[in-house]
Specification:
4-stranded mixed β-sheet; mainly alpha; two-stranded antiparallel sheet
């Protein structure tokens, strides 16, 4: 709760008194998620006013002098307080350093005669804070997909705060663009690209879109993820308008890649607004466009008509295109061409091995990008590899941490001895323990299988290769105890997650209650077997809850087995 002093009489700062609760008619009115309560001086003016967030908030005017002085809340932030959505006002109440409240005016004449041109349309420090915090919360939201601790309920807090700051930028209107664009020019990161793209697309201002494209064309590898995410977060009408424009004949490769990857995220409804058919992009001379078109084809339930075009790309000279084509073929094969699913697997295995070598030889930002692509390919490969199929030799050629990622997503208990071996490797103990726990559903700590934590003052052995910051907080396993634990109840040749066979019903349970890392596996597996059931764990929490409700309805109707 934040306490503020508000002016409280008459139509100050251009606010419409008709929107305020009138104490003379009872003094209680819904106030869009806010509660304003105040004490008064002997002259009748409020001394202090409380700013309280709540869904059943009301104006609580004191009984004394209520009929004489109908009160009003102060004009604040980027525009009038009452024009802000509830979530935005709630976010602003959380101690915003840029919030500038108008000082209380003690002279009634000053309030009545204040020139309108002296009232700013927006307060720059606060608008800039909206842009900065929106980028921050998008970063947290985007990075949550691999979290072994954060669940859907906690993700909802990030979603609400992100949406609140985006609404604040929407209220600021044209005043928001200079701050968003300046942040993008300064940092050139995906988070700033997300905020800048969201504002530019929502305002539908050609000059803003062109300024965004100038940065995107100069730094596509860094900024593309943020722009694609913005298209997925936009309302369907705004996203459809941009996708139609960026898939038209006047679009360049960067625009086409962004639009196609947004279609892969959003799904079939976005493909309906494409200005040109997918086959044109599958045959594009730019390999980035061909790879993005394969990703779009893999996400479209009705893309079986593009089977021949995607299949031809398995022989593409660019490894990234071959890998995306293999993933698309694997996604379509079980539905479009039963029995023809597995010839693509050797191609995808080879692309994964090539990408692993590339990631090992890269450094800095390029290593992070290569590692992200490698992990995505490995996750898709694990889902496409049939449980029970022999892949030990190919798995041994991958880096140790990548092998564990494959095992977690593959879910076949035949890999459990390999996981236990990795518990003895320095720097991999915690991650290997988490993979074992993910497959078996046995909590290491609750079952007494956790090891003794090292003393904090002892030096930590230096770990080469990929950093393990994400492992902090995971349980350290007792390898000997884990090795003797009776985990033989799991049958080889089946896909397990959290100790149970991964069926659509089990995936639905995990999507509602499990941490993000398990929810990612459950969502991808569900989409692999039922392309129409899409739950993106990086989407807004409200969107995810709506998708889960749809899955519940289909399960109840026995439409999904």
């Amino acid at each position: 709760m934040a306490m503020c002093t508000f002016p409280a009489k008459g139509a100050v700062c251009g606010l419409d008194k008709s929107r305020l609760g009138n104490p003379s008619t009872g003094g209680h009115r819904q106030c869009h998620g806010m509660t304003y309560a105040g004490s008064r001086t002997s002259s009748g003016w409020p001394r202090t006013t409380s700013f309280i967030s709540g869904t059943a908030a009301r104006w609580r005017a004191p009984a004394t002098r209520a009929k004489r002085y109908p009160c009003m809340a102060a004009w604040m932030c980027t525009t009038a307080c009452w024009s802000l959505p509830a979530r935005t006002r709630c976010a602003l109440s959380m101690a915003p350093p840029g919030a500038i409240w108008l000082n209380r005016m003690t002279n009634e004449r000053e309030r009545a005669t204040m020139p309108a041109h002296l009232i700013p349309g927006a307060i720059p420090p606060l608008v800039r804070r909206h842009a900065e915090d929106a980028a921050f919360y998008w970063n947290r939201h985007d990075a949550s997909a691999d979290s072994p601790r954060l669940g859907l309920a906690a993700l909802g807090s990030f979603s609400q705060l992100l949406v609140a700051h985006l609404e604040g930028l929407a209220v600021a209107g044209a005043h928001a663009w200079p701050h968003c664009h300046a942040a993008l020019e300064r940092w050139k990161k995906p988070a700033e690209a997300f905020v800048c793209a969201y504002v530019a697309f929502a305002m539908a201002e050609p000059a803003y879109s062109e300024a965004l494209l100038k940065q995107l064309r100069a730094h596509p590898d860094q900024l593309l993820r943020g722009v694609v995410s913005a298209l997925a977060w936009l309302p369907a009408a705004d996203a459809g308008r941009v996708i139609a424009q960026w898939t038209g004949t006047d679009s360049d490769s960067v625009m086409q890649v962004a639009a196609l990857r947004a279609i892969a995220l959003i799904g079939g409804e976005a493909a309906l607004v494409m200005a040109r058919p997918l086959a044109i992009f599958l045959a594009d001379p730019d390999p980035h466009v061909r790879a993005a078109a394969c990703r779009a084809a893999a996400a479209l339930p009705g893309a079986s008509g593009h089977w021949d075009g995607v299949h031809a790309l398995l022989d593409d000279p660019v490894a990234a295109v071959r890998a995306e084509a293999a993933i698309a073929i694997g996604s379509l094969a079980g539905h479009a061409r039963p029995g023809a699913a597995w010839p693509f697997l050797p191609i995808l295995w080879h692309c994964v091995a090539t990408q692993a070598e590339l990631a090992a030889g890269a450094s800095g930002w390029y290593r992070m990008q290569a590692q992200r692509r490698l992990e995505r390919w490995v996750q898709q490969l694990a889902l496409l590899q049939p449980p029970g199929a022999v892949c030990a030799a190919a798995l041994a050629a991958l880096p140790a941490r990548v092998r564990l990622c494959f095992v977690a997503w593959h879910g076949d208990p035949c890999h459990l001895p390999l996981v236990i071996e990795h518990m003895d490797m320095p720097g991999l103990e915690r991650y290997a323990g988490w993979v074992w726990q993910t497959m078996t559903g046995v909590d290491l700590v609750a079952s007494g299988l956790g090891g003794s934590e090292p003393e904090r003052d002892q030096p930590t052995p230096r770990v080469s290769g990929v950093g393990t910051d994400a492992d902090f907080g995971l349980a350290l396993p007792d390898v000997a105890a884990v090795r003797h634990h009776p985990s033989g109840g799991l049958s080889h040749g089946l896909r397990y997650l959290a100790g149970a066979v991964l069926t659509p019903a089990r995936a639905r349970e995990l999507l509602r209650d499990a941490p993000q890392a398990l929810r990612s596996i459950a969502a991808a597996s569900l989409q692999q077997s039922h392309p129409g059931l899409r739950v993106h764990v990086r989407a807004s929490a409200l969107v995810q809850q709506a998708c889960i409700a749809r899955i519940d309805a289909m399960l109840a109707g026995a439409a999904v087995r």
